[in-house]
């Protein structure tokens, strides 16, 4: 018996001539591929948006953590510590005058203040052992580690968001190509002859390349540092902030073991090695930071400086020139080029770079003052560091003391003249003082001469009556005041006098003297350098510079013993 359905002819899925069936199959296949790519694009877009929201959360948390920490540190240091120090001084003075009751009152209030912030208690401060609290350690524990961790999590998740966003955008490009492929297939069925195969082949090539491209994008990993690596990095930054470079290196090593391509870790570990004066390791880490993607101006600047100290002047100059391309408005970049050129004996090139730096510094100060603002503190710091570098280079050339310069056997062979180095250093110093106090370069010299510039301690008899000065350049550890004796000529009343005091190469702004001259044209006088009430000079090498109307007229140094 024949079943009724047997007499019915089944229709094929694709009908028509063989060419049309082939094209129909290809269209169906490409449509499926496009659907898969569309799904991948949608998922990538969702993941990108999710990571972006997480990044924004981390950014807000990092900013709030840092802001809160800075506010608490400012309150503890500026308000509580200052009040604590004043009360402690009053208690000491009261005790010296045998007023035990007053001393007790001051001590009671002082001790109550100490309970208002951890900064005034161990492990950050011990009145019996410390002169002042360890603010760096307090900041590291309070917010530096946590804010660094949150900032790095923000950077990692933002990078993840961008990576997924790039994938999503690429998938859109794939969909566009697949749409063109479908158009070519559709167009081919409207044509006759062999030419229609050209459109099929071309569309198939597009589809094949697109599928391969999709697979490459799909399997491409999105690599960001792991959470443990970020935590180890943040711990290292905190340890470096508290001036513990050896401990910081240990933490950075842990981070790199977890994330070998973590560029920020190489940079910070390079900073730690630089602090330890291990220049080869510092250079290797800065180079690794650049190789793993951190080619910003800060990294290049630090590597250039390491090369400079190593005596690799050509490499240092090449990187300094790169600094200029990355930051053509950066005063520090021109200063770096100038210092390196001077060390290499290229005096004219150095002077050109210094002239550009000084012109740019003047423009920035003028622009800031016209806007009723102050120039950034970094500007003064860069000018001071450049002048210090030049002083060190001069000492290396004349006295072979080359602790912060290229090796003597290198700079001594370049033909650099110490007098030329000193002249540029004086230009920078005078410009810095003039810009700070007048906002413009110094006027021509007025002919002031200081023929004698000596240091002394006052000597008193048993009745605390002044007897004489003991002239010396070495003072004991308990020195609280240093008198500067000088003989002068060519002065005019009303001129501005600035005295800057440097301790181990860095200015101590609390010792700066600023006054208007009122002691006549010529004679002898004294200037007092005081560490302050109940304070003493810390041990170290001191360097004193005297400026009259921003012109350097005298400079000399003394030492305070341990």
Could you name the key traits of this structure?
61% helix, alpha+beta, 15 helices, 562 residues, single chain, 12% strand, 10 strands, six-stranded mixed β-sheet
Summarize the structure.
This protein is an alpha+beta fold and 562 residues long.
Order of helices and strands: HHHHHHHHHHHHHHHEEEEEEEEEE
The biggest sheet, with number of strands, parallel, antiparallel or mixed sense and barrel status, is: 6 strands, mixed
How many DSSP H or I helices?
A: 15
The span between the termini is 121 Å
Q: Report the helical percentage.
A: 55-70%
Strand coverage percent: 5-15%
Give the overall average pLDDT: 90
Quaternary state reads single chain
Low-confidence runs: none
Tell me about this structure:
The chain folds into four domains: 22-47 and 144-219, no CATH class; 68-142; 325-442, no CATH class; 449-560, Sandwich (Immunoglobulin-like), CATH 2.60.40.10. Strand 1 and strand 2 form a beta hairpin. The chain is elongated and about 125 Å long. Helix 1 (18-96) runs parallel beside helix 4 (195-219) and helix 6 (245-258) packs antiparallel against helix 7 (263-275). It has helices at residues 18-96, 100-114, 135-188, 195-219, 227-241, 245-258, 263-275, 279-291, 297-310, 313-326, 331-343, 347-370, 377-399, 408-411, 418-438, and strands at residues 449-460, 466-471, 474-475, 481-489, 496-503, 506-507, 513-516, 523-530, 540-548, 551-560. The chain starts with 17 loop residues before the first helix and ends with a strand. Strands 3, 5, 6, 7, 9 and 10 form a six-stranded mixed sheet that branches. The protein has a four-stranded antiparallel sheet with strand order 2-1-4-8, with no helix packed on it. The chain has 562 residues and is an alpha+beta fold. The protein is built from 15 helices and ten strands.
């Amino acid at each position: 018996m024949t079943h009724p359905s047997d007499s019915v002819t089944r229709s094929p899925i694709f009908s028509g001539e063989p060419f049309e069936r082939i094209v129909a199959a290809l269209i169906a296949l490409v449509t499926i591929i496009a659907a898969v790519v569309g799904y991948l694009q949608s998922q990538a877009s969702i993941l990108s948006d999710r990571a972006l929201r997480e990044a924004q959360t981390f950014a807000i948390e990092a900013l709030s953590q840092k802001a809160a920490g800075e506010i608490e540190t400012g309150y503890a240091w500026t308000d509580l510590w200052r009040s604590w120090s004043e009360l402690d001084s009053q208690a000491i003075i009261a005790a010296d005058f045998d007023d035990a009751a007053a001393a007790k009152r001051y001590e009671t209030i002082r001790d109550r203040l100490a309970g208002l912030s951890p900064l005034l208690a161990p492990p950050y401060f011990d009145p019996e052992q410390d002169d002042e609290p360890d603010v760096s350690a307090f900041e590291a524990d309070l917010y530096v580690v946590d804010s660094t961790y949150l900032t790095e999590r923000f950077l990692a998740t933002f990078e993840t968001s961008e990576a997924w966003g790039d994938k999503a955008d690429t998938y859109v490009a794939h969909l566009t190509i697949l749409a063109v492929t479908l158009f070519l297939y559709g167009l081919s069925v409207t044509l006759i002859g062999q030419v229609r195969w050209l459109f099929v082949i071309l569309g198939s090539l597009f589809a094949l390349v697109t599928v391969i491209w999709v697979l490459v994008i799909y399997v491409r990993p999105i690599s960001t540092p792991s959470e443990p690596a970020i935590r180890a990095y943040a711990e290292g930054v905190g340890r470096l902030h508290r001036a513990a470079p050896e401990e910081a290196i240990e933490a950075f090593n842990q981070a790199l073991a977890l994330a070998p391509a973590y560029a920020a870790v190489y940079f910070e570990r390079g900073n730690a090695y630089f602090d330890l004066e291990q220049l080869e390791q510092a250079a290797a880490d800065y180079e690794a930071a650049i190789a793993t993607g951190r080619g910003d101006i800060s990294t290049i600047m630090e590597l250039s400086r390491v090369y400079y100290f190593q005596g690799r002047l050509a490499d240092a100059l090449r990187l300094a020139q790169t600094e200029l391309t990355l930051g053509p408005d950066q005063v520090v970049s021109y200063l770096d080029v100038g210092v390196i050129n001077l060390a290499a004996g290229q005096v004219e090139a150095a002077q050109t770079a210094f002239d550009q730096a000084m012109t740019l510094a003047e423009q920035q100060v003028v622009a800031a003052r016209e806007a009723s603002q102050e120039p950034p503190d970094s500007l003064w710091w860069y000018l001071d560091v450049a002048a210090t570098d030049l002083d060190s280079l001069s000492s290396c050339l004349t006295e072979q003391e080359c602790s912060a310069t290229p090796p003597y056997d290198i700079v001594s062979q370049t033909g650099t003249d110490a007098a030329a180095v000193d002249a540029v250093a004086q230009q920078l110093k005078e410009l810095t003082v003039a810009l700070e106090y007048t906002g413009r370069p110094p006027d021509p010299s007025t002919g002031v001469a200081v023929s004698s510039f000596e240091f002394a301690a006052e000597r008193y008899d048993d009745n605390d009556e002044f007897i004489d000065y003991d002239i010396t350049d070495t003072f004991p550890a308990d020195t609280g005041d240093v008198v500067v004796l000088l003989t002068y000529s060519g002065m005019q009343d009303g001129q501005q006098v600035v005295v800057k005091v440097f301790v181990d190469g860095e200015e101590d702004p609390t010792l700066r003297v600023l006054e208007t001259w009122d002691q006549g044209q010529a004679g002898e006088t004294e200037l007092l350098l005081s560490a302050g009430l109940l304070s003493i000079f810390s041990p170290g090498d001191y360097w004193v510079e005297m400026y009259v109307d921003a012109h350097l007229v005298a400079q000399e140094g003394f030492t305070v013993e341990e």
